Amino acid sequence: MKIYGITNCNTVKKALDWLKVNDIAYEFHDFKKLGVPTEKLKEWDEKAGYEKFMNKQGLTWKQLDPAIKEGIKTKEAALQLIQQKTSMIKRPVVEDGNFLFFGFDEATYQQHFEK
Description:
The chain is of the alpha+beta class. The chain has one domain: Glutaredoxin. Helices cover 50% and strands 14% of the residues. It has 8 helices and 4 strands. A 4-stranded mixed sheet has the order 2-1-3-4. Helix 1 (10-21) links the parallel strand 1 (2-5) and strand 2. The mean pLDDT is 95.
């Protein structure tokens, strides 16, 4: 299982703490330091749609120049922007086999990991 996120994000911290308390092993990918490959963004888009992981509620989106926001008319433009500004990805991203989840929801984690 792989977790994507950034270490100073409170939601990521909550998720990682939950995984530790529940003794669930994971590999962490810090996309602030390591980035996110284009292929990975395309994979997430194919599985869930970029709208699911492009966080328009966060500070990064809100601080963008309005012209940049208006320029996001296609999936390709959105993925390019997300790759440049990885803080726009809803965090954490959990990949566990076919399970792909964006964010932290204790009930969802509980349901998935109680197997």
